[in-house]
Amino acid sequence: MDGRDTDLKKELDATLQTRRELGEEYESALVDSFLEKVDQRIDGTVERRVRRQLAEQQMATARDSRSPRPTDSFGERFGFGIVSLVLAVPLSAIGGGVADLPGLLVAWAGIVGVNVVRAARTTRRRRRADKDDAWQD
Q: What's the pTM?
C-alpha cells in the first residue's frame, strides 16, 4: 500500500467518523465530498500520466528529427546522373579542343571523380542510417 492509498483510507475513515457523529441527514453531503476527493485524485493521476506520455512522445520526435536520414532518393540519384552527362558534353568539347586527348581524359577524370565521391557519400550515409536503425530497434 503506497502513501496515496493510505491518505485515501484516512479520508474515508474521517468521513465515516464524521457521519457517525453528525448522523444520517449529512450522509449524502459527506459521500459527495469524499467522491469529489477521489475524483480529484483520479484526475491528478490521469493528468500526470498524460503529461508523461506527451513528454515521451516529444522526446522520441526530437530524437528522430536529430538523427540524419538519407535524403537521396532514386530521383535525386537519377537527376545527378543526368546533370553529370549533360555537363560532360561541353566539358569534353572544351578539354578536347584545348588539349586534345589529354584534355579530354582530364575532363572525364573530373566527371568520374565527382560521381565516385557522390556515390561514396550516399553509400556511407545509407550504411550509417542502417546502423542507427539497428541500434534503435
A: 0.42
Per-residue confidence (pLDDT) for residue 52, from 0 to 100: 93
List Cα–Cα distances, 117 to 37, 50, 86, 103, 111, in angstroms: 68, 48, 18, 21, 10
Task: Kindly report the backbone phi and psi dihedral angles of residue 73, in degrees, each rounded to the nearest multiple of 5, phi listed first.
Answer: -95, 180
Q: What is the tens place of the pLDDT at every residue in 100-121?
A: 999 999 999 999 999 899 888 8
Q: Which residue type occupies 134? A: A
First to last CA, the chain: 36
Q: Any idea what DSSP says for residue 67?
A: S
Q: Which helix (H) or strand (E) holds 2?
A: none
Inter-residue contact 27 to 19 (CB < 8 Å): yes
Question: What is the reported pLDDT for 102?
Answer: 92
